[in-house]
Design goal:
The chain is mostly helical. The protein is 74% helix and 0% strand. This is Cytochrome c556. One of its GO terms (molecular function) is electron transfer activity.
């Protein structure tokens, strides 16, 4: 009986550790996705004419988007389908290749935009592919807010 108690305790610690890790990865991806959304806000304001074009802000925002897009696929492991108040749809894991490809496309689009945006006109011309990729992911893989 003495051997079983440590085994049971060890198993309980392991299970609780998995639950914490699952919640942690969901929290990490939510934070990174929020950061990505925050990076789009100044660009959107410039495109709407609500803010003056600022090349440095555009470059910094696009670099952040590209960097986050490269990191995010790893934050959707199979054991993080539920919990942590996630808006991730099960479709992510059913079509993980498409989901991961959207992040690769987003990183490439943001990087390409960094090289082509020089003024307000080029900003408006270049951001469609970046924002369009964001929209595709939201439409296909994120639960709608009610």
């Amino acid at each position: 009986m003495k051997l079983r108690i440590p085994t049971i305790v060890g198993l309980a610690v392991l299970v609780s550790g998995v639950a914490v890790a699952q919640t942690d990865v969901i929290a990490q991806r939510k934070a990174m996705l929020k950061q990505m959304g925050d990076s789009t806000k100044p660009i959107a304001a410039m495109m709407k004419g609500e803010a003056k074009f600022d090349q440095a802000v555009v470059q910094k925002s696009l670099a952040s988007i590209a960097d986050d897009a490269k990191k995010l696929p790893a934050l959707f492991p199979a054991n993080s389908k539920t919990g942590g108040d996630t808006a991730a749809l099960p479709k992510i894991w059913d079509d993980k290749a498409k989901f991961d490809d959207l992040f690769a496309k987003l990183a490439a689009a943001a990087t390409a935009a960094q090289g082509s945006i020089k003024d307000e006109a080029s900003l408006k011309a270049s951001m469609g592919s970046v924002f369009g990729t964001c929209k595709s992911c939201h439409d296909d893989f994120r639960a709608k807010k009610s």
